[in-house]
Amino acid sequence: MRLYIHWPFCVSRCAYCDFNSRVASRELHALYHHALITEIENRSRCIGEERRDLGSLYLGGGTPSIMKGEEVARFLEEVFRYFRRGPGTEVTVEVNPADWCAGDFIQAREGGVNRFSMGVQSLSDDVLAFLGRRHSANQAVEAMRSALASGADVSADLLCALPAAGRLSASDSLSDVLDLGPHHISLYGLTLEKSTPLAKRVELGEVALPGEDEAADEYLALVSTLGERGYEQYEISNFSRPGYESRHNLAYWSREEYLGVGAGAHSLIAERRFSNRSSVLQYIENIKSGGSTLESYEVLNLSERESEEIMLGLRTTAGVREELVGHSVDGLEALGLIVRRLGRIRLTPSGMLVSNTIIAGLLPDVDSLRCA
Ligand code: SF4
């Protein structure tokens, strides 16, 4: 089983973020912590004995590193009362570089964490300030060094498709981060989310994001740098040294079962997709009163499962079985957007740039889904 635990709190909000996270008091953190453990206990009882063995656990947010390393270790100790950790269980925690010193990484390691996902985003102080991040480039470098010195696998998140002044720095940041020797890189294009401070600045004409062509050229250049430095692309935004892929995230894309706990968390179990309410207060209240935390619940039929297999599989370099795709892909192949190999099809880096359009064109007709 894969277990995702959502920690929906941040110290401050970044200018571009629309994730399910908020700034809240320590008192609310404590109430939420208690509710989380109650949900974990309840769900562990319902899902059946065989699903209590953890292939991976991912503590994400929000900013779980608001808890110190020792608190994360104690929290995991509680979780492991209900879900069993084995020698091969991948245990990841997301860390904001502003939060932890070397001792925190070591304490988290001692508590069972073996992978840190670091929200570096950039190694330019100007870009970090523009993004509203609360750490400096130096802090990010120091945190990466401490995470690596702890002996855990380390992934760094970086942003590209930044406004003009940040564009040079994305390639500089990538080179500098790679010099530190992380095992894994996640590279995301900055996107405009409605109602964020960044979206308002763009609306007012104060900043402009790059056009599609510029962003595409930059992405392909960064992908090429990663390849030259020995990082293999295994998903649109994810690259790793061989053998250091995120097993937790790979499970999402290959439609393995996972349980998500916490406000707004999603699950896929026994071909049922369900999600919790995203409001933290409502979530705590529902847990306290013994009511349902669910906001959605859906049983997937065969056509929906196959559509998901196409949508998720084409994000990865493993691709999907060609027989699943009912449309001709000759045109896409001729354009260099997909490759066929051993009965599977996958997107090329150029194809990944327009993945949404390609995937939408390869899905079965909506009408035939309705009849299935
Ligand atoms: S730290 Fe992460 S979750 Fe929190 S506001 Fe920034 S981007 Fe969003």
TrEMBL record:
Where located?
Answer: Cytoplasm
**Broad class of the protein's primary localization:** cytoplasm
List the Gene Ontology MF annotations in alphabetical order: 4 iron, 4 sulfur cluster binding; coproporphyrinogen oxidase activity; metal ion binding
Q: List the CDD domains.
A: Radical_SAM
The entry's keywords: 4Fe-4S, Chaperone, Cytoplasm, Heme, Iron, Iron-sulfur, Metal-binding, S-adenosyl-L-methionine
> Boundaries of each Radical SAM core domain copy?
1-229
The terms describing its cellular component in GO are: cytoplasm
What residues form the membrane-spanning segments? none
Give GO terms for biological process: porphyrin-containing compound biosynthetic process
Family membership, please give it. Belongs to the anaerobic coproporphyrinogen-III oxidase family. HemW subfamily.
State the function annotated in the UniProt record.
Probably acts as a heme chaperone, transferring heme to an unknown acceptor. Binds one molecule of heme per monomer, possibly covalently. Binds 1 [4Fe-4S] cluster. The cluster is coordinated with 3 cysteines and an exchangeable S-adenosyl-L-methionine.
Q: Would you tell me the protein name for this molecule?
A: Heme chaperone HemW
- What is the source species? Candidatus Solincola sediminis
